[in-house]
Amino acid sequence: MNLDLKYLYSLGNNILINEPMKKHTTFKIGGIVPYYIIPKTKNIFINTLNYIIEKNINFKIIGGGANLLINDSTLNFIVLSTEYLTGYSVKENILYSEVGIPISRLSYIAMENSLSGLEFASGIPGTLGGALFMNAGAYGGQISDVILNVEVYDTKEKKTHILEKDLLNFNYRKSIFHERKYIALSAYIKLNKKDKKEIENKMKDLSIKRWEKQPLEYPSAGSFFKRPRPNFYVGTTIEKLGLKGYSIGDAEISNKHAGFIINKGNAKFEDVIKLSEYVKKIVKESYGEDLEIEPEIWW
Ligand SMILES: Cc1cc2nc3c(=O)[nH]c(=O)nc-3n(C[C@H](O)[C@H](O)[C@H](O)COP(=O)(O)OP(=O)(O)OC[C@H]3O[C@@H](n4cnc5c(N)ncnc54)[C@H](O)[C@@H]3O)c2cc1C
User: Fold this and answer.
1) Is 235 a member of any domain?
2) What's the pLDDT score for residue 187?
Protein backbone atom coordinates (compact mmCIF):
# COMPACT_ATOMS: atom_id res chain seq x y z
CA MET A 1 0.00 0.00 0.00
CA ASN A 2 1.57 3.24 -1.19
CA LEU A 3 1.10 5.53 1.79
CA ASP A 4 3.38 8.50 2.55
CA LEU A 5 3.66 7.99 6.31
CA LYS A 6 6.00 10.96 6.74
CA TYR A 7 3.37 13.22 5.19
CA LEU A 8 0.55 11.70 7.27
CA TYR A 9 2.55 12.20 10.48
CA SER A 10 3.30 15.79 9.44
CA LEU A 11 -0.45 16.45 9.12
CA GLY A 12 -0.85 15.51 12.80
CA ASN A 13 -1.91 11.87 12.85
CA ASN A 14 -1.21 9.03 15.23
CA ILE A 15 -0.62 5.91 13.13
CA LEU A 16 -0.72 2.32 14.32
CA ILE A 17 0.95 -0.14 11.95
CA ASN A 18 -0.30 -3.74 11.44
CA GLU A 19 -3.05 -3.16 13.96
CA PRO A 20 -5.36 -6.02 15.06
CA MET A 21 -8.95 -4.81 14.68
CA LYS A 22 -10.12 -7.13 17.48
CA LYS A 23 -8.61 -4.49 19.81
CA HIS A 24 -11.04 -1.89 18.46
CA THR A 25 -14.37 -3.73 18.36
CA THR A 26 -16.77 -4.58 21.19
CA PHE A 27 -17.08 -8.08 19.62
CA LYS A 28 -13.30 -8.59 20.08
CA ILE A 29 -13.14 -10.08 16.58
CA GLY A 30 -11.18 -8.76 13.59
CA GLY A 31 -7.94 -9.25 11.67
CA ILE A 32 -4.99 -6.98 11.01
CA VAL A 33 -5.16 -3.74 9.04
CA PRO A 34 -1.92 -2.30 7.62
CA TYR A 35 -2.59 1.18 9.04
CA TYR A 36 -4.94 2.48 11.73
CA ILE A 37 -4.88 6.26 11.59
CA ILE A 38 -6.09 8.56 14.36
CA PRO A 39 -6.25 12.21 13.25
CA LYS A 40 -5.86 14.56 16.21
CA THR A 41 -8.42 17.20 15.14
CA LYS A 42 -11.34 17.60 12.73
CA ASN A 43 -9.22 19.62 10.27
CA ILE A 44 -6.48 16.99 10.33
CA PHE A 45 -9.20 14.36 9.77
CA ILE A 46 -10.40 16.27 6.67
CA ASN A 47 -6.85 16.78 5.33
CA THR A 48 -6.13 13.08 5.85
CA LEU A 49 -9.32 12.13 4.00
CA ASN A 50 -8.34 14.44 1.11
CA TYR A 51 -4.97 12.69 0.85
CA ILE A 52 -6.33 9.14 1.11
CA ILE A 53 -9.03 9.77 -1.49
CA GLU A 54 -6.57 11.51 -3.82
CA LYS A 55 -4.33 8.42 -3.59
CA ASN A 56 -7.31 6.11 -4.21
CA ILE A 57 -6.61 4.11 -1.04
CA ASN A 58 -9.28 1.76 0.26
CA PHE A 59 -10.38 3.02 3.70
CA LYS A 60 -13.07 2.70 6.35
CA ILE A 61 -14.20 4.93 9.21
CA ILE A 62 -14.47 3.60 12.74
CA GLY A 63 -16.16 5.18 15.74
CA GLY A 64 -16.47 3.02 18.85
CA GLY A 65 -16.45 -0.31 16.96
CA ALA A 66 -19.72 -1.30 18.70
CA ASN A 67 -21.60 -2.24 15.55
CA LEU A 68 -18.96 -4.07 13.58
CA LEU A 69 -18.20 -7.67 12.66
CA ILE A 70 -14.77 -7.82 11.03
CA ASN A 71 -13.17 -10.72 9.17
CA ASP A 72 -10.20 -12.23 11.02
CA SER A 73 -8.03 -12.54 7.93
CA THR A 74 -5.50 -9.92 6.80
CA LEU A 75 -7.47 -6.89 5.67
CA ASN A 76 -6.61 -4.80 2.63
CA PHE A 77 -8.03 -1.47 3.74
CA ILE A 78 -6.86 1.17 6.17
CA VAL A 79 -8.96 2.50 9.04
CA LEU A 80 -9.51 6.10 10.10
CA SER A 81 -10.66 6.58 13.65
CA THR A 82 -12.81 9.47 14.92
CA GLU A 83 -11.53 8.89 18.47
CA TYR A 84 -10.09 12.39 18.94
CA LEU A 85 -13.05 14.27 17.43
CA THR A 86 -14.52 14.99 20.83
CA GLY A 87 -15.10 18.76 20.88
CA TYR A 88 -18.51 19.94 22.08
CA SER A 89 -20.33 23.03 23.35
CA VAL A 90 -23.69 23.81 24.89
CA LYS A 91 -25.69 26.99 24.23
CA GLU A 92 -29.11 27.20 25.84
CA ASN A 93 -30.90 24.05 24.61
CA ILE A 94 -28.59 23.37 21.66
CA LEU A 95 -25.74 20.90 21.95
CA TYR A 96 -22.97 20.94 19.34
CA SER A 97 -20.67 17.93 19.18
CA GLU A 98 -18.01 16.39 17.01
CA VAL A 99 -18.70 12.80 16.03
CA GLY A 100 -16.05 10.92 18.01
CA ILE A 101 -17.61 11.62 21.37
CA PRO A 102 -19.20 8.53 22.95
CA ILE A 103 -22.98 8.86 22.67
CA SER A 104 -23.39 7.81 26.32
CA ARG A 105 -21.02 10.63 27.36
CA LEU A 106 -23.07 13.06 25.29
CA SER A 107 -26.24 12.02 27.12
CA TYR A 108 -24.40 12.62 30.42
CA ILE A 109 -23.29 16.10 29.24
CA ALA A 110 -26.92 16.85 28.31
CA MET A 111 -28.08 15.74 31.76
CA GLU A 112 -25.42 17.88 33.48
CA ASN A 113 -26.86 20.86 31.58
CA SER A 114 -30.46 19.96 32.52
CA LEU A 115 -31.22 19.05 28.91
CA SER A 116 -33.60 16.22 28.10
CA GLY A 117 -33.82 14.16 24.87
CA LEU A 118 -30.71 12.00 24.97
CA GLU A 119 -31.64 9.83 27.97
CA PHE A 120 -32.35 6.87 25.64
CA ALA A 121 -28.68 6.93 24.56
CA SER A 122 -27.15 6.74 28.00
CA GLY A 123 -26.24 3.04 27.73
CA ILE A 124 -25.62 2.75 23.99
CA PRO A 125 -21.96 1.92 23.26
CA GLY A 126 -20.19 3.77 20.45
CA THR A 127 -19.89 7.32 19.20
CA LEU A 128 -22.19 10.03 17.91
CA GLY A 129 -20.91 9.25 14.37
CA GLY A 130 -21.90 5.58 14.65
CA ALA A 131 -25.25 6.60 16.11
CA LEU A 132 -25.90 8.89 13.12
CA PHE A 133 -24.89 6.14 10.69
CA MET A 134 -27.30 3.61 12.26
CA ASN A 135 -29.89 6.04 13.60
CA ALA A 136 -29.21 4.36 16.93
CA GLY A 137 -32.11 4.10 19.30
CA ALA A 138 -33.44 2.42 22.41
CA TYR A 139 -36.43 2.50 24.73
CA GLY A 140 -38.59 4.56 22.40
CA GLY A 141 -35.98 7.18 21.45
CA GLN A 142 -33.61 7.47 18.51
CA ILE A 143 -30.92 9.93 17.49
CA SER A 144 -33.04 11.28 14.60
CA ASP A 145 -35.53 12.64 17.19
CA VAL A 146 -33.06 15.28 18.37
CA ILE A 147 -30.76 16.03 15.42
CA LEU A 148 -30.99 19.49 13.85
CA ASN A 149 -28.26 19.13 11.25
CA VAL A 150 -25.01 17.30 10.52
CA GLU A 151 -21.76 18.51 9.01
CA VAL A 152 -20.68 15.88 6.48
CA TYR A 153 -17.63 15.28 4.33
CA ASP A 154 -18.61 14.27 0.80
CA THR A 155 -15.94 11.80 -0.36
CA LYS A 156 -16.90 12.27 -4.02
CA GLU A 157 -16.52 16.04 -4.04
CA LYS A 158 -13.91 16.17 -1.26
CA LYS A 159 -15.96 18.97 0.34
CA THR A 160 -17.88 19.50 3.54
CA HIS A 161 -21.61 20.39 3.65
CA ILE A 162 -24.21 20.98 6.30
CA LEU A 163 -27.18 18.64 5.85
CA GLU A 164 -30.40 19.61 7.59
CA LYS A 165 -32.31 16.78 9.27
CA ASP A 166 -34.82 16.24 6.43
CA LEU A 167 -31.93 15.48 4.05
CA LEU A 168 -30.44 12.83 6.34
CA ASN A 169 -33.03 10.18 5.30
CA PHE A 170 -33.32 8.72 8.80
CA ASN A 171 -35.29 5.50 9.09
CA TYR A 172 -35.21 2.40 11.30
CA ARG A 173 -31.43 1.74 11.74
CA LYS A 174 -30.77 3.60 8.48
CA SER A 175 -29.64 7.03 7.30
CA ILE A 176 -28.16 8.88 4.32
CA PHE A 177 -24.78 7.41 5.35
CA HIS A 178 -25.93 4.03 3.98
CA GLU A 179 -26.80 5.59 0.61
CA ARG A 180 -24.11 8.20 -0.05
CA LYS A 181 -20.37 8.20 0.54
CA TYR A 182 -20.63 10.80 3.28
CA ILE A 183 -18.73 10.92 6.54
CA ALA A 184 -20.28 12.68 9.53
CA LEU A 185 -18.00 15.24 11.20
CA SER A 186 -20.17 17.07 13.73
CA ALA A 187 -23.81 17.70 14.57
CA TYR A 188 -26.19 20.15 16.22
CA ILE A 189 -28.67 18.54 18.59
CA LYS A 190 -31.84 20.20 19.90
CA LEU A 191 -32.88 19.27 23.44
CA ASN A 192 -35.43 20.46 26.00
CA LYS A 193 -34.85 22.06 29.39
CA LYS A 194 -35.95 19.73 32.17
CA ASP A 195 -35.26 19.04 35.83
CA LYS A 196 -31.79 17.50 36.10
CA LYS A 197 -32.82 14.96 38.74
CA GLU A 198 -35.70 13.74 36.55
CA ILE A 199 -33.32 13.22 33.64
CA GLU A 200 -30.79 11.45 35.86
CA ASN A 201 -33.44 9.11 37.28
CA LYS A 202 -34.62 8.14 33.80
CA MET A 203 -31.04 7.38 32.75
CA LYS A 204 -30.52 5.25 35.86
CA ASP A 205 -33.75 3.30 35.18
CA LEU A 206 -32.71 2.59 31.60
CA SER A 207 -29.25 1.51 32.73
CA ILE A 208 -30.72 -0.98 35.21
CA LYS A 209 -33.02 -2.37 32.48
CA ARG A 210 -30.04 -2.78 30.15
CA TRP A 211 -27.95 -4.66 32.73
CA GLU A 212 -30.93 -6.89 33.61
CA LYS A 213 -31.77 -7.78 30.01
CA GLN A 214 -28.53 -7.67 28.02
CA PRO A 215 -25.42 -9.89 28.26
CA LEU A 216 -23.12 -6.91 28.86
CA GLU A 217 -20.57 -9.13 30.58
CA TYR A 218 -19.61 -10.68 27.19
CA PRO A 219 -18.19 -9.12 24.02
CA SER A 220 -20.85 -8.62 21.34
CA ALA A 221 -22.06 -6.14 18.75
CA GLY A 222 -25.42 -5.64 20.48
CA SER A 223 -28.63 -6.96 18.89
CA PHE A 224 -27.43 -9.07 16.01
CA PHE A 225 -30.53 -8.92 13.81
CA LYS A 226 -32.70 -6.00 12.73
CA ARG A 227 -36.40 -6.17 13.48
CA PRO A 228 -37.87 -7.22 10.09
CA ARG A 229 -41.10 -5.32 10.80
CA PRO A 230 -42.64 -3.45 13.75
CA ASN A 231 -43.82 -5.74 16.56
CA PHE A 232 -41.71 -8.68 15.38
CA TYR A 233 -39.31 -9.17 18.27
CA VAL A 234 -36.32 -11.13 17.06
CA GLY A 235 -34.94 -12.05 20.52
CA THR A 236 -38.27 -13.47 21.70
CA THR A 237 -38.69 -15.38 18.42
CA ILE A 238 -35.22 -16.96 18.65
CA GLU A 239 -35.90 -17.86 22.29
CA LYS A 240 -39.22 -19.53 21.36
CA LEU A 241 -37.35 -21.60 18.78
CA GLY A 242 -35.22 -23.02 21.60
CA LEU A 243 -31.99 -21.54 20.31
CA LYS A 244 -30.79 -19.84 23.49
CA GLY A 245 -27.32 -21.12 24.32
CA TYR A 246 -26.85 -22.67 20.84
CA SER A 247 -23.24 -22.17 19.79
CA ILE A 248 -20.75 -22.65 16.99
CA GLY A 249 -17.19 -22.46 18.26
CA ASP A 250 -17.11 -19.67 20.81
CA ALA A 251 -19.99 -17.77 19.17
CA GLU A 252 -23.18 -18.30 21.15
CA ILE A 253 -26.81 -17.20 21.18
CA SER A 254 -26.94 -15.47 24.55
CA ASN A 255 -28.84 -17.23 27.31
CA LYS A 256 -29.77 -13.82 28.70
CA HIS A 257 -31.06 -12.20 25.48
CA ALA A 258 -31.50 -14.39 22.41
CA GLY A 259 -31.17 -11.38 20.07
CA PHE A 260 -27.48 -11.14 21.00
CA ILE A 261 -24.67 -13.29 19.62
CA ILE A 262 -21.87 -13.22 22.18
CA ASN A 263 -18.18 -14.05 21.99
CA LYS A 264 -17.48 -16.54 24.76
CA GLY A 265 -13.72 -16.12 24.43
CA ASN A 266 -12.16 -16.81 21.07
CA ALA A 267 -15.04 -16.67 18.58
CA LYS A 268 -14.00 -16.47 14.96
CA PHE A 269 -15.63 -14.39 12.24
CA GLU A 270 -16.71 -17.61 10.49
CA ASP A 271 -18.31 -18.97 13.71
CA VAL A 272 -20.49 -15.86 13.99
CA ILE A 273 -21.45 -15.95 10.31
CA LYS A 274 -22.34 -19.67 10.43
CA LEU A 275 -24.36 -19.20 13.61
CA SER A 276 -26.27 -16.25 12.18
CA GLU A 277 -26.95 -18.17 8.93
CA TYR A 278 -28.36 -21.04 10.99
CA VAL A 279 -30.64 -18.70 12.96
CA LYS A 280 -31.80 -17.01 9.75
CA LYS A 281 -32.63 -20.39 8.20
CA ILE A 282 -34.66 -21.60 11.20
CA VAL A 283 -36.54 -18.30 11.52
CA LYS A 284 -37.34 -18.32 7.80
CA GLU A 285 -38.60 -21.94 7.95
CA SER A 286 -40.68 -21.32 11.07
CA TYR A 287 -42.03 -17.78 10.54
CA GLY A 288 -41.33 -16.96 6.90
CA GLU A 289 -39.37 -13.87 7.96
CA ASP A 290 -36.07 -12.86 6.39
CA LEU A 291 -33.73 -11.60 9.09
CA GLU A 292 -31.12 -9.00 8.26
CA ILE A 293 -27.87 -8.67 10.19
CA GLU A 294 -27.60 -5.37 12.11
CA PRO A 295 -23.80 -4.90 12.50
CA GLU A 296 -21.79 -3.71 9.53
CA ILE A 297 -19.59 -6.47 8.13
CA TRP A 298 -16.04 -5.61 7.05
CA TRP A 299 -14.32 -8.24 4.87
C1 LIG B 1 -23.82 -4.20 24.26
C2 LIG B 1 -24.34 -3.39 23.11
C3 LIG B 1 -25.58 -2.79 23.20
C4 LIG B 1 -26.08 -2.04 22.13
N5 LIG B 1 -27.30 -1.44 22.25
C6 LIG B 1 -27.77 -0.70 21.23
C7 LIG B 1 -29.04 -0.04 21.34
O8 LIG B 1 -29.71 -0.10 22.36
N9 LIG B 1 -29.47 0.67 20.28
C10 LIG B 1 -28.74 0.77 19.12
O11 LIG B 1 -29.19 1.45 18.19
N12 LIG B 1 -27.55 0.16 18.99
C13 LIG B 1 -27.04 -0.55 20.00
N14 LIG B 1 -25.84 -1.17 19.88
C15 LIG B 1 -25.09 -1.05 18.63
C16 LIG B 1 -24.10 0.17 18.63
O17 LIG B 1 -23.89 0.61 19.93
C18 LIG B 1 -24.66 1.32 17.80
O19 LIG B 1 -24.95 0.92 16.48
C20 LIG B 1 -23.68 2.49 17.75
O21 LIG B 1 -24.34 3.57 17.16
C22 LIG B 1 -22.41 2.17 16.98
O23 LIG B 1 -21.56 3.30 17.05
P24 LIG B 1 -19.99 3.15 16.82
O25 LIG B 1 -19.38 4.49 16.97
O26 LIG B 1 -19.44 2.09 17.68
O27 LIG B 1 -19.95 2.71 15.30
P28 LIG B 1 -18.87 1.72 14.65
O29 LIG B 1 -19.16 0.33 15.09
O30 LIG B 1 -17.50 2.23 14.84
O31 LIG B 1 -19.26 1.85 13.10
C32 LIG B 1 -20.50 1.36 12.63
C33 LIG B 1 -20.72 1.92 11.22
O34 LIG B 1 -20.84 3.33 11.32
C35 LIG B 1 -19.92 3.95 10.44
N36 LIG B 1 -19.48 5.20 11.04
C37 LIG B 1 -18.94 5.40 12.27
N38 LIG B 1 -18.67 6.71 12.44
C39 LIG B 1 -19.04 7.33 11.30
C40 LIG B 1 -19.01 8.68 10.87
N41 LIG B 1 -18.51 9.66 11.63
N42 LIG B 1 -19.50 8.98 9.64
C43 LIG B 1 -20.01 8.01 8.84
N44 LIG B 1 -20.04 6.70 9.19
C45 LIG B 1 -19.58 6.38 10.41
C46 LIG B 1 -18.77 2.96 10.31
O47 LIG B 1 -18.01 3.18 9.13
C48 LIG B 1 -19.54 1.65 10.30
O49 LIG B 1 -20.01 1.39 8.98
C50 LIG B 1 -25.31 -1.91 20.94
C51 LIG B 1 -24.03 -2.50 20.87
C52 LIG B 1 -23.54 -3.23 21.93
C53 LIG B 1 -22.17 -3.83 21.85
Assistant:
1) yes
2) 98
